Automatic annotation (TrEMBL):
Pathway: Organic acid metabolism; glycolate biosynthesis; glycolate from 2-phosphoglycolate: step 1/1
One GO BP annotation of this record: DNA repair
One cellular component term from this protein's GO annotations in UniProt: cytosol
Organism of derivation: Primorskyibacter sedentarius
Similarity comment text for this entry: Belongs to the HAD-like hydrolase superfamily. CbbY/CbbZ/Gph/YieH family.
Gene Ontology terms, MF aspect: phosphoglycolate phosphatase activity
Protein name: phosphoglycolate phosphatase
UniProt superkingdom: Bacteria
Annotated EC: 3.1.3.18
Catalytic activity: 2-phosphoglycolate + H2O = glycolate + phosphate
Length: 224
């Protein structure tokens, strides 16, 4: 069964502003004010909470693993309290998902966001039911770019890894697809723009309107 697995942050939805807000909540609690910028630092937001804390603490000349570990639970708590204030699905994302499902393609999500937060966000956005699988950063003992979460997402959706592809936005997604031996599609509407072409994915996606035809090229129907 053909299957398309989506990353979440920076791929299905622009979550950067809410992520940056959660990080800045921590920096304000430190007495430092808003250290990260929701526009200039959006790309770091898509690499997760620890990346944002690392960047901010570096700017404050207070970086240590202990400080990152100390503030990470606070960041997750602040994010969970205001997870969908600014977050928006990218234009055409759910229309493309619907078109894939209508074509008999299974769809799922594999994200490095903690599973509970990912479930909450997709539910609040009103789209959780569109996806047959959802694997988060803590669903398994390992996370992307280890291929195991991706494989689990495909299998949970009832698909075949050999007839699947990953839609993402970062080097983590590229490395995950390579490790799983599947095609990778990277979106160009995130903060890195067309720079993701340097990662040499099998395909680039400029708008979700183009995804159904792209999937047909990557995963052609195999005659019985």
């Amino acid at each position: 069964m053909r299957t398309v697995i989506f990353d979440l942050d920076g791929t299905l939805a622009d979550t950067s502003a809410d992520l940056i807000a959660a990080a800045n909540h921590c920096f304000r609690a430190m007495g430092a004010g808003d250290v990260l910028d929701p526009v200039a630092d959006a790309a770091t937001a898509f690499h997760g909470g620890r990346a944002m804390l690392t960047l901010g603490l570096t700017r404050l000349e207070a970086l240590s693993d202990a400080e990152v570990n100390r503030w990470y639970p606070h960041l997750l708590g602040a994010y969970g309290d205001a997870i969908d204030v600014h977050t928006r699905l990218y234009p055409g994302a759910m229309e493309a998902v619907a078109a894939l499902r209508d074509a008999g393609v299974r769809v799922g999500v594999c994200t490095n966001k903690p599973e509970g937060l990912a479930e909450t966000l997709l539910t609040r956005l009103g789209v959780r039911g569109a996806f047959a699988s959802m694997i988060g950063a803590d669903t398994l003992p390992v996370r992307k770019p280890d291929p195991a979460p991706y494989i689990a997402a495909v299998e949970q959706a009832g698909g075949s890894v050999a007839q699947s592809c990953l839609i993402g936005d970062t080097s983590t997604d590229r490395e995950t697809a390579r490790a799983a031996g599947v095609p990778c599609v990277l979106v160009t509407f995130g903060p890195d723009g067309h720079a993701v072409a340097d990662l040499e994915p099998e395909e680039l996606l400029a708008h979700y309107d183009d995804l159904p035809a792209l999937v047909e090229r990557l995963l052609p129907v195999i005659a019985a």
